[in-house]
Write a structure and sequence with these properties.
Elements (H helix, E strand, L loop, with lengths): L1 E5 L4 H12 L3 E6 L11 E5 L5 H8 L4 E4 L8 H10 L4 E5 L6 E3 L2 E2 L11 H15 L5 E6 L3 E3 L7 E3 L13 E3 H13 L6 E7 L5 E7 L4 H5 L1 H8 L4 E5 L9 E2 L2 H18 L5 H4 L9 E2 L2 H14 L1 H16 L8 H10 L4 H9 L3 H15 L6 E6 L2 E5 L8 H14 L1
Helix pairs in contact: 1-5, 2-3, 7-15, 10-11, 10-12, 10-13
């Protein structure tokens, strides 16, 4: 089957692309910037803007089915549907949003007074798009809405499907990973069961306990806490959330002011944690005024590693990045350094570089800051123990330099729950 994916470089679209290739399909990958599309023998990369009907129709030509994975704030059904029809494509699958799902008969999630204002426009756009599809006569369409929480995670294949209602687990949570969502969507494309219909999936294999690690690769205290992360991974699953502390407008070129600010803090971190800050960091990198501290690339690298090899591989790379910066004095904002570090952990350089370019960092940073605000965290690092419906911030200050005792403490918290 020849599958066209609109938005193939996004968080969801890139996972759908991977799943389609895993199943042996040919893919027409469409994005505004075709140079960011993964190179593969079964991928045809085409550049087109969803708002340019003629260009989009040309890009869709030859597809058996089209998948739309763009954001609803960027386009409407009236922009997309005519291009799909002009291309002669009869089937359309749309990556929907949870806001259109019902929490009670006739009442959608987006209509709740407490629905987050920052997501309202996207959710309302999704509902409007669905309403337009419901009166569509010519296309065989499917609108697959994810769970309320839609995030990067693991490909497990363990989820259940509903119809137009918001599904929740026994603990009240509603979430699915991009990876499992891609499985559900490709299942529907290969064996249609919900034509001209809305349905959704819910990941059901939530671990009994999960430790959230809110971090930044350029945070010295996070480096100090790195042994605690390693110890925690032997007790329960750990999920990293990068904050972008020095990304975008906050990136900094090294100068005397930066050096004079961080050095006393790093020396105190070393004293409390036992972590070694190398000579090449203190008197090499911190003295190199051509170096730039930008936490965007290393966070993109961690996310790329997760997408290629799973959550644990992402955590392994994060630890390697922190050591490369603070011990070895390497420029972890430079892509070639990150590719080399990932290669030492078994990643293919070209695939890793392409995966880095596909990461939607602003969305990730926003999700991290939303989580930080939700739990009342104060900065980096913040550790949050999730058990059932409970989210508890753990003060790790007393555990720095004591990874064995920390692991014992975590194990007791989990066993006592």
């Amino acid at each position: 089957m020849n599958i066209a994916i609109i938005g193939a470089t996004g968080n969801v679209g890139s996972r759908i692309l991977e799943e389609a290739l895993r199943r042996g399909h040919d893919v027409i990958a469409i994005a505004r910037d075709a140079s960011k599309i993964k190179s593969h023998t079964q991928v045809t990369a085409r550049g087109a803007d969803v708002l340019d009907r003629t260009a989009l129709a040309a890009a869709l030509a030859g597809a058996d089915v089209a998948i739309s994975s763009g954001r609803f704030v960027n386009f409407k059904a009236a922009d997309l549907l005519p291009a799909v029809k002009q291309a002669g494509v009869k089937r359309l699958a749309v990556v929907g949003g949870a806001g259109s799902l019902e929490i009670a008969p006739g009442k959608a999630l987006v209509d709740l007074p407490e629905f987050p204002a920052e997501y309202k426009a996207e959710a309302t756009g999704g509902r409007d798009f669905l309403n337009d599809l419901r009166v569509e006569k010519d296309l065989d369409w499917t609108f697959l809405s994810p769970s309320a929480l839609f995030i990067a995670g693991e490909r497990t294949g363990k989820f259940r499907l509903g119809t137009n209602e918001l599904l929740t687990a026994a603990d009240g949570k509603s979430w699915i990973s991009y990876e499992d969502y891609a499985i559900a969507l490709l299942d529907e494309i290969e064996q249609p069961r919900h034509v001209r219909a809305l349905y959704r999936g819910l990941l059901m294999n939530t671990p009994a306990a999960l430790l959230h690690y809110i971090h930044d690769p350029l945070c010295g205290w996070c480096y100090g806490a790195s042994p605690l992360v390693t110890a925690a991974r032997a007790v329960l699953p750990v999920r990293a959330h990068g904050g972008g502390m020095m990304a975008g407008r906050n990136r900094r070129q090294v100068d005397a002011d930066l050096r004079n600010y961080v050095m006393p803090h790093d020396q105190r971190i070393a004293q409390l944690s036992g972590q070694v800050f190398g000579e090449r960091y203190f008197n090499g990198l911190l003295a190199d005024t051509t170096a730039v501290f930008d936490s965007g690339p290393p966070i993109a690298a961690v996310l790329a590693m997760q997408s290629l090899q799973g959550n644990d591989a992402g955590l392994d790379l994060l630890a390697a990045i922190q050591r490369a910066h603070y011990h070895d004095g390497r420029r972890i904002s430079d892509e070639h350094v990150l590719i080399a570090l990932a290669g030492q952990l078994g990643a293919d350089g070209a695939a890793f570089s392409a995966a880095m370019q596909q990461q939607q960092l602003e969305e990730h940073f926003q999700a991290t800051h939303n989580l930080l605000a939700q739990v009342g965290g104060r900065g980096f690092p913040t550790f949050v123990l999730e058990q059932g419906a409970a989210m508890e911030v753990i003060d790790v200050g007393t555990w720095l330099g004591r990874p064995v005792e920390w692991a014992t403490h975590l194990r007791a918290m989990v066993e006592d729950a």
